[in-house]
Design a protein that fits this description.
mainly alpha, two-stranded parallel sheet
Length: about 600
C-alpha cells in the first residue's frame, strides 16, 4: 500500500469514527489518529485531504473526537502544496464564541497552525479577514496568537484610527499585555506620529516562530512535492514584501525587513504592493523603505531598484557588506559567514549581477575562508562580471584563491570548481548577447577561461579514469562506470557552452575560438557511453561551424593560423575514420592524428 493510500484509508477511518461516540465505536480511534499523523508527517497532505481534515477539526456538531486527537491532527497538518484561500476562510469562520464553534483550545491551535503556514497561503484571504481577526482580540485565550498573526499581516491600510484606539484601550484594560504591546509597535512603525506615550514602552512579545522544527519539516515536504510535480507554486512570490521574522532562515534573519516610516495618506509604500500590476502603476511614486540594505534579501525591493535604479541604495548595501567583510576577515564574524554567502547568492541569483564591491569583498574573504558554505560561494562567483581585459587579473584575485581552498585532489572538488566555471561562462555569454549589436569590442577573458579550464578538464577526466581502473568489487565497478559517465557529462557541459559561443556570429566578435585539448577529445571519444560520444560530436560540429563563419569574414581570416585550423580538422578526420570509414587510427589521411597513437602502433 502506498503512503497516499495509507493516508486516505486512515483518514476515512478517523472521519467515520468521529461520527460515533467513544462507547459506540467498539475499538479505540487513537491508533487510526496516530497512523494518520504519521502519514501526514512523512509526505504531507494534498489539497483534497487537507479540506476534509479542516472540515473535521473546525466542526463541533456531530464530532465526537476528543481534544487530544484533534490537537494531534492539527499538529500534523503539513500541506504539501499551497494552501487555498477557502481553507483559511474556514478556519477564520470557526473562531469566536458559540455553541457550534470548536473549543477555544482547538481555536488557538488552529491560529497557531495558520501562523506557521502563512508563507504558503494563496491569495489575500488573511488580509481580507483582518477586521474579523481584529475584533476577536478581546478573547483572552486567542489573544497571543491573534496578535502575532495580525502583526504578520498588518499593512499600512489596516492601521485605522479606531483600531489604534481599540488597541490602546485593550492594553490599558489588560495591564499592558505583551502581545498587545507588540502589535502596537507594529502599528507605530506605520504611524509613529500618532502612537506616542507609554503605550509601546512596556514589555512586548518578540513574536517568534511557534515551532521552527515544524517549519523546517514543512519546507522539506513542500520542496520534495514541488520537485516531484514540478509545481511552479513552490517559487517565492516576488510581488509581496518578504516577512522573515517568523521562522526565517539564518541568512535572511541577518537582514532587516522592509519597513517604510513617515508615510502619508497620498504616498505608496512597498508593503502595499501585492502584485505585478500594483508595482507597475505605483513605480514612480513608491516611497523607499527605511533601511535599503533590505534589497539584499527582499525580491520586491530588488525589482523596484532594477526598474528604478538608485546608486545610493546600492552604496548603502555595499557599505554594510564591507563592514561584514571586515569582521569576517578579522575573525569576529566567522559564525555568520554562511549566512552572508547565502544572502549574496540570493541577491546575485535575483539580479544576475555581482557589483564590483561584492567582488572586492569576496576577494578579501577568500583569504581567510574556512570552506563553509562552499555551494553558496561557488554560485556567487559564477556571477562575476566579464572583465574588460584578460582573465589573469581576475584569476589571481579570486579564482586562484578559490581553487586553493576547494581543490583537494578529489573528483568531487574538481567537479565543483568545473561546474562553477561552466556557470560563469554561461553568464558571460548571456551578458554579451544582451549587448547592443553595434558593440564590437574584443575581450581575451573568455579564451583565457577556456584555456584554463582545458587543464582542469583533463585533470578531471584523468582522475575519473584512474578511479574506474581499480574497482574493488562488481558493485564498485558499476558505480565507478556511472561516475565516469557523470564526469564526462560535466566536462561536456562546459564545452557545449564554449562551442555555442564559438558558433554564434554575434559572440564571435567578442571572443576568439579556443579548441579542445587533443587528449581530452580522444578520452571522450573512446568513452563506453554512446551519449558521451554523441555530445562530443555535437560540440565538434558547432566548433566547425564557428570556424567556417570566422574564416568567411575578411577581418577574421588571418586570426587563426593554418596549423591551428588543421589541428582541429584532424579531430573531425579521426572521428570519421573511427565511426564511418572503418579506418580507425589511420594517420595517412590529410590532417588525421591517428587518435594520437604513436607511429608503431598506428601501422597495420
Amino acid at each position: 500500500m502506498s503512503s497516499h493510500d495509507e493516508l486516505k484509508e486512515s483518514l476515512a477511518e478517523v472521519i467515520q469514527g468521529a461520527k460515533l461516540k467513544a462507547k459506540s465505536r467498539g475499538t479505540s480511534i487513537k491508533p487510526a489518529v496516530e497512523t494518520l499523523g504519521s502519514a501526514c508527517y512523512e509526505n504531507g497532505v494534498l489539497p483534497h485531504e487537507l479540506t476534509e481534515l479542516i472540515d473535521l477539526v473546525t466542526t463541533s456538531a456531530g464530532n465526537y473526537l476528543d481534544q487530544a486527537s484533534l490537537n494531534s491532527i492539527i499538529r500534523n497538518l503539513y500541506p504539501a502544496t499551497k494552501v487555498a484561500s477557502e481553507i483559511v476562510i474556514k478556519v477564520v469562520a470557526c473562531l469566536g464564541h458559540g455553541v457550534l464553534k470548536p473549543s477555544l483550545t482547538i481555536q488557538a491551535a488552529l491560529l497557531r497552525w495558520i501562523i506557521m503556514i502563512n508563507h504558503v497561503i494563496e491569495g489575500n484571504a488573511l488580509s481580507q479577514s483582518y477586521p474579523v481577526l481584529f475584533n476577536l482580540l478581546d478573547t483572552a485565550a486567542l489573544r497571543p496568537s491573534l496578535c502575532q498573526l495580525l502583526a504578520m499581516i498588518t499593512r499600512r491600510r489596516h492601521v485605522r484610527p479606531h483600531r489604534i484606539q481599540t488597541l490602546l484601550s485593550l492594553s490599558r484594560q489588560t495591564g499592558s499585555d505583551p502581545a498587545l504591546t507588540g502589535l502596537l509597535r507594529v502599528f507605530k512603525d506605520y504611524y509613529p506620529e500618532i502612537i506616542v506615550g507609554e503605550a509601546t514602552r512596556g514589555k512586548a512579545s518578540a513574536f517568534k516562530h511557534p515551532d521552527p522544527a515544524w517549519r523546517e519539516r514543512l519546507d522539506e515536504i513542500q520542496s520534495a512535492h514541488a520537485q516531484t510535480s514540478r509545481n511552479a507554486n513552490a517559487v517565492q512570490d516576488a510581488f509581496h514584501v518578504a516577512r522573515n521574522g517568523n521562522g526565517a532562515r539564518k541568512a535572511t534573519a541577518l537582514i532587516p525587513e522592509v519597513h517604510t516610516s513617515h508615510a502619508n495618506e497620498s504616498s505608496v509604500t512597498l508593503e502595499e504592493i501585492e502584485n505585478a500590476e500594483g508595482l507597475v502603476k505605483a513605480l514612480e511614486t513608491i516611497e523607499m523603505p527605511n533601511q535599503l540594505i533590505s534589497v539584499l534579501a527582499d525580491p520586491l525591493l530588488q525589482k523596484l531598484l532594477l526598474l528604478r535604479p538608485d546608486a545610493e541604495s546600492l552604496q548603502r548595501a555595499s557599505n554594510w557588506l564591507v563592514s561584514c567583510a571586515q569582521d569576517l576577515v578579522s575573525g569576529d564574524g566567522d559564525s555568520e559567514m554562511e549566512g552572508i554567502l547565502e544572502i549574496m547568492r540570493g541577491y546575485a541569483r535575483a539580479t544576475r549581477n555581482l557589483p564590483p564591491v561584492f567582488l572586492s569583498l569576496l576577494s578579501e574573504v577568500l583569504k581567510t575562508w574556512n570552506g563553509r558554505g562552499q555551494a553558496s560561494m561557488l554560485e556567487v562567483l559564477s556571477y562575476v562580471p566579464l572583465p574588460s581585459s584578460d582573465f589573469s587579473g581576475l584569476y589571481e584575485a579570486v579564482f586562484q584563491r578559490l581553487e586553493a581552498k576547494v581543490l583537494d585532489g578529489t573528483p568531487s572538488s574538481q567537479l565543483a570548481v568545473l561546474h562553477c566555471y561552466t556557470s560563469l561562462l554561461r553568464n558571460w555569454a548571456a551578458f554579451l548577447l544582451a549587448q547592443p549589436q553595434g558593440r564590437d569590442s574584443t575581450s581575451s577573458a573568455i579564451p583565457d577561461l577556456v584555456t584554463h579550464v582545458n587543464k582542469l578538464a583533463l585533470t578531471v577526466l584523468q582522475t575519473a579514469a584512474a578511479a574506474s581502473s581499480f574497482p574493488a568489487s562488481n558493485h564498485d565497478n558499476n558505480s565507478s562506470s556511472s561516475n565516469t559517465v557523470a564526469t564526462h557529462s560535466a566536462v561536456l557541459d562546459f564545452y557545449e557552452e564554449a562551442s555555442r559561443i564559438a558558433s554564434n556570429p554575434q559572440l564571435q566578435r567578442h571572443a576568439q575560438i579556443v579548441i579542445l585539448p587533443p587528449p581530452l577529445v580522444y578520452l571522450l571519444h573512446f568513452s563506453a557511453s554512446p551519449a558521451t560520444v554523441s555530445r562530443l560530436c555535437g560540440v565538434l560540429a558547432r566548433y566547425k561551424a564557428g570556424f567556417q563563419t570566422a574564416m568567411a569574414g575578411s577581418r577574421n581570416s588571418s586570426t587563426y593560423s593554418v596549423a591551428y585550423i588543421n589541428g582541429f580538422n584532424g579531430f573531425l578526420m579521426d572521428v570519421c575514420n573511427c565511426l564511418w570509414r572503418a579506418r580507425a587510427f589511420n594517420a595517412q589521411d590529410a590532417n588525421a592524428h591517428g587518435c594520437l597513437l604513436p607511429p608503431p602502433s598506428s601501422r597495420t
